[in-house]
Automatic annotation (TrEMBL):
<keyword id="KW-0812">Transmembrane</keyword>
<keyword id="KW-1071">Ligand-gated ion channel</keyword>
<comment type="similarity">
    <text>Belongs to the glutamate-gated ion channel (TC 1.A.10.1) family.</text>
</comment>
<keyword id="KW-0472">Membrane</keyword>
<protein>
    <recommendedName>
        <fullName>Ionotropic glutamate receptor C-terminal domain-containing protein</fullName>
    </recommendedName>
</protein>
<feature type="transmembrane region" description="Helical">
    <location>
        <begin position="877"/>
        <end position="899"/>
    </location>
</feature>
<dbReference type="InterPro" id="IPR017103">
    <property type="entry name" value="Iontropic_Glu_rcpt_pln"/>
</dbReference>
<feature type="transmembrane region" description="Helical">
    <location>
        <begin position="631"/>
        <end position="649"/>
    </location>
</feature>
<dbReference type="InterPro" id="IPR015683">
    <property type="entry name" value="Ionotropic_Glu_rcpt"/>
</dbReference>
<feature type="transmembrane region" description="Helical">
    <location>
        <begin position="12"/>
        <end position="29"/>
    </location>
</feature>
<dbReference type="InterPro" id="IPR028082">
    <property type="entry name" value="Peripla_BP_I"/>
</dbReference>
<dbReference type="Pfam" id="PF01094">
    <property type="entry name" value="ANF_receptor"/>
</dbReference>
<feature type="domain" description="Ionotropic glutamate receptor C-terminal">
    <location>
        <begin position="492"/>
        <end position="853"/>
    </location>
</feature>
<dbReference type="GO" id="GO:0015276">
    <property type="term" value="F:ligand-gated monoatomic ion channel activity"/>
</dbReference>
<comment type="function">
    <text>Glutamate-gated receptor that probably acts as a non-selective cation channel. May be involved in light-signal transduction and calcium homeostasis via the regulation of calcium influx into cells.</text>
</comment>
<feature type="disulfide bond">
    <location>
        <begin position="801"/>
        <end position="857"/>
    </location>
</feature>
<dbReference type="InterPro" id="IPR001320">
    <property type="entry name" value="Iontro_rcpt_C"/>
</dbReference>
C-alpha cells in the first residue's frame, strides 16, 4: 500500500515537472530572468542613409529607452530581428520563386522595381523561421504593399511609415501606419495656392506608388477651389537628364507658372538641377514641394539646394521640447558609432516616427499580455506552396487590438493611432533660402494659414497670404508671381471682333486698303486696350481679327462669334478661331456655358424705346387723375366723419347746428366740405370742435396743395408720357417690335411669346427713328427693344430724345464682357483689371469720348414709367393724425356727457332702453349756455336769501361788485355746465355789503 502511494507521488511530481517544462521554461526564455521574449522583425533599407539607417538607430534606442524607464514592472522584452529590404536580386529571386505566394509572385513579375523581390523573402523568413509577432517596416510604399499582404494572411501586425494613400488600414486590417498619410498634406498645399489666387497649376510627380498616390486627392481639391490642373508631368525614377530637360522645355512653353512637385530626394536631386539649367527657377515661377521632400532637405547636396532657391515647401510640424533635444544629442553620438562612414548626422521626422512606432509596439506588447510566440499550423498537405504553410499567429489579433488606438506624447508630438492610422498634426511652411530652409508660417486644419501657432478664440479659418512671413521667390524676387505668363515666342493673342454696319460708337472695324491691316476702334476696343496695355501685371501681345466674310460682311451672329472660341468650328473656310472676343458682347447664360466671361464693364438690362403721347390734356376727366381712387374715397369718408364730429360737439350749445333733421344732415355735409376752400361761416362754440377743425384744416391744406401741383404737372409736363408702358401690351395687341440685328434680344423676344412675324431687325439709329416715327400701323414698329447702353446712346441725340423715351428695364442682363476660352488664366486677371478701370476716371474719359452725345439733350437717364396719380400711401400720416384728434375729442365729449347724466345712466328704475331714450332726449335738448350772473337778481340787502330760479330785470349797475366779477369769471364753460334737474332747488345767497371806492 505504501509502495503504491509512493508510486503515485512520484507520478504526480513527474506530472508537475512536465507541466513546468511545457509552460514555465519557454516563458522564462533563453536568459531565464523571468521576462517574456517577443520576437519582432525589422525590415529597413540599410543602404538608405536618409531614412533607413536613421530609423534603424531610432528603433533600437526607442526600445532601450522604454525598458530603461519600465524595468521595474516590465514583463516582456522585444527581441529585434533585422532584415535588409535590399539584397542580391538574382539570388533572392531564385530562392523564393518556388515558394512565394502566387499573388505576390505575379505582382513581382509585373513590378518595375526588382530590388523589392527581396522583400517577400525577408518577410517570409521572419515569419517562418523566427515566427515574429510583428514587423516594423518597410518604409517605402512600393515595398510595404507586399509585406502588408503577407501580414494580412498570417495575422501579423505590420507597422510601417509608408505614406501612400493607396495603402489603407481600412482595406488592410493588419496594417498600422506609423506616419501621416500622404493625402493629409493636401489641404495645406491647397491653402497656399488659394491664398495667392493662382488659377492654374502643373503637377510633377514620380512614377511610383508614392508619387501616384496623392495625385487624385490634389486634383479633386484644386478643382474645389476653381484652380485647374493644366498639365501632369510624370517622371520615372530612371529618367535621364535629357528626358527631364525635354519635359521641362515643354512645360516652359505653357502659360502656367505654378508647379507642385511630389517626389522623393533621389529623383528631386536630378530634377531641380535641370530646372535651374532650363532657366525655370527665375522670376515669375512658383515651385511648391510636398512633405516627403521638404522633410529631407537637410540631406540634400548643397548644389541641389542652390538650384532650389525660392521654393516653398510643407512638412509635418514637430513641436520643440527638451526631451527631443536631449534625444538628438544621444542619437548623433550613437549614429556616429554605428555608421562611421556616413557624414549625415541630422534627425528627420521619419526617424522620429520610427522611434514612436517602436515605443507604441512596446507599450502594446506590454498591455496585451502576450505570451509565447506561436503560429497555428495547418493540417499537413503535400506540395504546399502558399503562405498557409507558415500558419496564423495566435497572438496577432490581441496585439493588433492594443495597437490600433494607442495614444501618447512621443518625440514627434502627439502620437495618436486611430483605427490603425496616425492622426495628422499641423504643417510647417518653409521657404528654401541660402543653405537651407526658413520658416514662414504654419497651417492647421482648424485655423488655416498663420504666422505662428498661438491663436485667439475669435480666429477663423484663413487663407490670407498676409498671415505668412516674407517670402523670397525664385529669381530673388519679393514680388508675388502671378502664376501665368505668355511664353516667349508665343504667337499673339488672336482677338475676334464683330463686324457691323451701325452702332460704330461701340465697335468698328476698318481695313487699310494698301496694307490690309485691321484697325479696330470704339468704346469696347478702347476699354480692352486700356486693360491689356496698362492694367495687366504682364505683357500680352494681341491682334484684332474681324469676324467677316471675304466681301467684308459679318460672318454670323454674336453667338456664332463667341462659339468660335470654344467649339473650334469654322463657319467659312477662310475664318480662323480666336483666343478671345472683344466687342459689345452681352454676358448671357447660354454663352457662358461655352466660354468664360470677364466681369461686365457696362450697365446691364434690356429696355424699350417708345414714342411720347400727348392726349391727356384733351381728356375731359383729367381733373380726377391727380388722386387715385383709394385717396378720393378716403378723403370723402374723412369729410363726412369730420362734419359729424363737429355737429356732435355743437348740437347742444350752438343754434346753427339745431333745427329739423334735414337741416342738421345738411349742416354735417356742408360744414366739412366748406373747409375745403376755407369758406365756412358758422361760429364754433365748443372747444372740442375747434380742436378737430384746426387739425382737419391742416389736412385739407396739404391735400389741396398736392392736388393743385399734380394737376398742374399733368396739364403741362404730362406730354412726356410714353405711348406704351408694359411689354405685355405689345404681345396682346400684336404690335410690330424692332430689335438690333445680330443681338441676343431676338431670342429673348421669342421666349417672351412674341409672334415671329411681328419682329423686325435694324442696324442703325436712323432706322430706329424711321421705324418708330411710322408706327406699327404704317409698316414701322410700336417699340424698339434693345440693351440699355444702345438706348442711352440713342436718346442722348437731341434729334431723338424729344420724341422717344425709355420704358424699363424690362429684362435683366449682366452687361458687356470680354470672352475667353473655358479655364483661361487671362479671364480672372482681366476681370480684376476691369474693376480697376471702372473705379477710376479712365472709364469716364472713354465714355465721354465715344458715348457722350447728350450735352444739348434733356437727360432721361433712369426714367421710370409709373402712375402720375397721388396715392393713399403718401397721406397716411395726415389721415392718422386727423383720426386720432377726432376720436380723442369724441372720447372726452362722451366722458363729460356721461358724467353730467350719471344719475340717469346709473338709475336702477329704468331699463337699458329707457336709459338710452332718456340720454338721447337729453343730448337733443338745447343746453342753457347763458351766464349764471344774468339769471340772478341784484342784491337787496345783507343776508337776504332769494330763490336761485328767480330773476329780476334790473339795469346793470355801472359798477360791478367783486363777487359778481368773480362769479362771471369762474362761470362754467358752455360745454361743461351741469344739467338742471326737474326738481326745483332753491339757493340761499348771502349778500355781503361791499364798500366801493369811488
Amino acid at each position: 500500500m505504501q509502495e503504491h502511494r509512493r508510486y503515485c507521488s512520484q507520478l504526480l511530481v513527474l506530472l508537475v515537472l512536465f507541466i513546468i517544462s511545457l509552460y514555465v521554461v519557454p516563458i522564462l526564455g533563453k536568459n531565464g530572468n523571468g521576462l517574456i521574449e517577443v520576437d519582432v522583425g525589422v525590415i529597413l533599407d540599410a543602404d538608405d542613409q536618409m531614412v533607413g539607417k536613421v530609423s534603424q538607430t531610432c528603433v533600437s534606442m526607442a526600445l532601450e529607452d522604454f525598458y530603461a524607464l519600465n524595468q521595474n514592472h516590465s514583463t516582456t522584452r522585444i527581441v529585434l530581428h533585422k532584415r535588409d529590404s535590399k539584397g542580391d536580386v538574382v539570388e533572392a529571386a531564385s530562392a523564393v520563386v518556388g515558394y512565394l505566394p502566387d499573388m505576390v509572385y505575379r505582382s513581382l513579375i509585373n513590378y518595375r522595381d526588382l530590388t523589392s523581390i527581396e522583400l517577400p523573402f525577408a518577410a517570409i523568413d521572419l515569419l517562418k523561421n523566427v515566427q515574429v509577432q510583428a514587423i516594423l517596416g518597410p518604409q517605402r510604399s512600393s515595398q510595404a504593399k507586399f509585406v502588408i499582404d503577407i501580414g494580412n494572411k498570417t495575422q501579423v501586425p505590420i507597422i510601417s511609415q509608408a505614406t501612400s494613400p493607396s495603402l489603407s488600414p481600412a482595406d488592410n486590417p493588419y496594417f498600422i501606419r506609423g506616419a501621416q498619410k500622404g493625402s493629409s498634406q493636401v489641404e495645406s498645399l491647397i491653402a497656399i495656392v488659394q491664398s495667392f489666387g493662382w488659377r492654374e497649376v502643373v503637377l510633377i510627380y514620380e512614377d511610383t506608388d508614392y508619387g501616384r498616390g496623392v495625385v487624385p486627392f490634389l486634383t479633386d481639391s484644386f478643382h474645389g477651389i476653381s484652380t485647374q490642373v493644366r498639365h501632369r508631368s510624370v517622371l520615372s525614377l530612371s529618367a535621364s537628364d535629357d528626358h527631364i530637360l525635354q519635359e521641362l522645355y515643354k512645360l516652359k512653353t505653357m502659360q502656367t507658372r505654378v508647379f507642385v512637385v511630389h517626389m522623393l530626394p533621389f529623383l528631386a536631386s536630378h530634377f531641380f538641377t535641370k530646372v535651374k539649367q532650363a532657366e525655370m527657377m527665375n522670376k515669375g515661377y512658383v515651385w511648391i514641394i510636398t512633405d516627403g521632400l521638404t522633410s529631407l532637405l537637410d540631406y540634400m547636396d548643397t548644389t541641389v539646394i542652390d538650384s532650389m532657391q525660392g521654393v516653398i515647401g510643407v512638412k509635418p510640424y514637430v513641436p520643440k521640447s527638451s526631451k527631443l533635444e536631449n534625444f538628438k544629442v544621444r542619437w548623433r553620438k550613437r549614429f556616429r558609432q554605428e555608421n562611421p562612414d556616413v557624414d549625415i548626422f541630422e534627425m528627420n521626422v521619419f526617424g522620429l516616427w520610427a522611434y514612436d512606432s517602436a515605443t507604441a509596439l512596446a507599450k502594446a506588447v506590454e498591455s496585451s499580455g502576450i505570451g509565447v510566440s506561436k503560429f497555428k499550423k495547418p493540417v499537413a498537405k503535400e506540395n504546399l506552396i502558399d503562405l498557409a504553410v507558415i500558419g496564423i499567429s495566435e497572438m496577432g489579433p490581441r496585439l493588433l487590438q492594443s495597437l490600433q488606438n494607442i495614444k501618447f506624447n512621443g518625440l514627434s508630438g502627439k502620437f495618436h493611432l486611430r483605427n490603425g492610422q496616425l492622426q495628422p498634426s499641423s504643417f510647417q511652411i518653409v521657404n528654401v533660402i541660402g543653405k537651407g530652409e526658413r520658416e514662414i508660417g504654419f497651417w492647421t486644419r482648424k485655423y488655416g494659414i498663420s504666422k505662428n501657432l498661438s491663436f485667439s478664440s475669435s480666429k477663423n479659418y484663413s487663407t490670407n497670404n498676409d498671415d505668412l512671413g516674407a517670402i523670397i521667390w525664385p529669381g530673388e524676387s519679393n514680388v508675388v508671381p502671378k502664376g501665368w505668363e505668355m511664353p516667349t515666342g508665343e504667337p499673339k493673342l488672336r482677338v475676334g471682333v464683330p463686324v457691323k454696319g451701325g452702332f460704330t460708337q461701340f465697335v468698328s472695324v476698318e481695313r487699310n486698303s494698301q496694307t490690309n491691316a485691321v484697325n479696330a476702334t470704339g468704346f469696347c476696343i478702347d476699354v480692352f486696350k486700356e486693360i491689356m496695355d496698362h492694367y495687366l501685371p504682364y505683357d500680352v501681345p494681341y491682334e484684332f481679327l474681324p469676324f467677316e466674310t471675304p466681301d467684308g460682311e459679318s460672318a454670323g451672329s454674336y453667338n456664332d462669334l463667341v462659339y468660335q472660341i470654344s467649339l473650334g468650328l469654322k463657319f467659312c473656310v477662310h475664318l480662323q478661331n480666336y483666343d478671345a472676343v472683344v466687342g459689345d458682347v452681352t454676358i448671357v447664360s447660354n454663352r457662358s456655358r461655352f466660354v468664360d466671361f470677364t466681369l461686365p464693364y457696362t450697365e446691364s438690362g434690356v429696355a424699350m424705346v417708345v414714342p411720347f403721347e400727348d392726349d391727356d390734356r384733351k381728356n375731359a376727366w383729367i381733373f380726377m387723375k391727380p388722386l387715385n381712387m383709394d385717396l378720393w374715397l378716403t378723403t370723402g369718408v374723412f369729410f363726412v366723419f369730420t362734419g359729424f364730429m363737429v355737429w356732435a360737439f355743437e348740437h347742444r350749445v350752438n343754434e346753427e347746428f339745431r333745427g329739423p333733421p334735414s337741416k342738421q344732415v345738411g349742416m354735417i355735409f356742408w360744414f366739412s366740405f366748406s373747409t375745403l376752400v376755407f369758406a365756412h361761416k358758422e361760429k364754433l362754440i365748443s372747444n372740442l370742435s375747434r380742436f378737430v377743425i384746426i387739425v382737419w384744416v391742416f389736412v385739407v391744406l396739404v391735400l389741396t396743395s398736392s392736388y393743385t401741383a399734380s394737376l398742374t404737372s399733368m396739364l403741362t409736363v404730362q406730354k412726356l408720357k410714353p405711348s406704351i408702358t408694359d411689354i405685355r401690351d405689345l404681345i396682346q395687341s400684336k404690335e410690330y417690335v424692332g430689335y438690333q440685328q445680330g443681338s441676343f434680344v431676338e431670342g429673348l423676344l421669342k421666349n417672351q411669346k412674341f409672334d415671329t412675324s411681328k419682329l423686325k431687325n435694324y442696324s442703325t439709329f436712323e432706322q430706329y427713328d424711321e421705324a418708330l416715327s411710322k408706327g406699327s400701323k404704317n409698316e414701322g414698329v410700336a417699340a424698339i427693344i434693345d440693351e440699355l447702353p444702345y438706348i442711352r446712346l440713342f436718346l442722348s441725340n437731341p434729334k431723338y430724345c424729344s420724341k422717344y423715351t425709355i420704358v424699363g428695364p424690362i429684362y435683366k442682363t449682366a452687361g458687356f464682357g470680354f470672352a475667353f476660352p473655358k479655364g483661361s488664366s487671362l479671364a480672372p486677371d482681366v476681370s480684376r483689371a476691369v474693376l480697376n478701370v471702372t473705379e477710376k476716371n479712365v472709364m469716364t474719359k472713354i465714355e465721354e469720348e465715344w458715348l457722350d452725345e447728350g450735352a444739348t439733350c434733356a437727360e432721361q437717364d433712369g426714367a421710370r414709367v409709373t402712375s402720375d396719380s397721388l396715392t393713399l400711401d403718401s397721406f397716411k400720416g395726415l389721415f392718422i393724425v386727423a383720426a386720432v384728434a377726432s376720436f380723442s375729442a369724441l372720447i372726452l365729449f362722451l366722458s363729460i356727457f356721461l358724467y353730467e347724466n350719471w344719475d340717469t345712466f346709473a338709475s336702477n328704475d329704468l331699463s337699458i332702453r329707457e336709459k338710452l331714450i332718456a340720454m338721447a332726449k337729453t343730448f337733443d335738448e338745447e343746453k342753457d349756455n347763458s351766464s349764471d350772473a344774468s339769471k340772478r337778481k341784484p342784491p337787496t340787502g345783507e343776508g337776504m336769501a332769494v330763490p336761485a330760479t328767480a330773476t329780476t330785470d334790473c339795469p346793470q349797475s355801472p359798477a360791478t361788485s367783486d363777487s359778481q366779477l368773480a362769479e362771471w369769471i369762474f362761470s362754467p364753460d358752455e360745454g361743461l355746465s351741469t344739467t338742471e334737474t326737474s326738481i326745483p332747488i332753491h339757493e340761499t345767497i348771502e349778500m355781503v355789503e361791499i364798500n366801493e371806492e369811488r
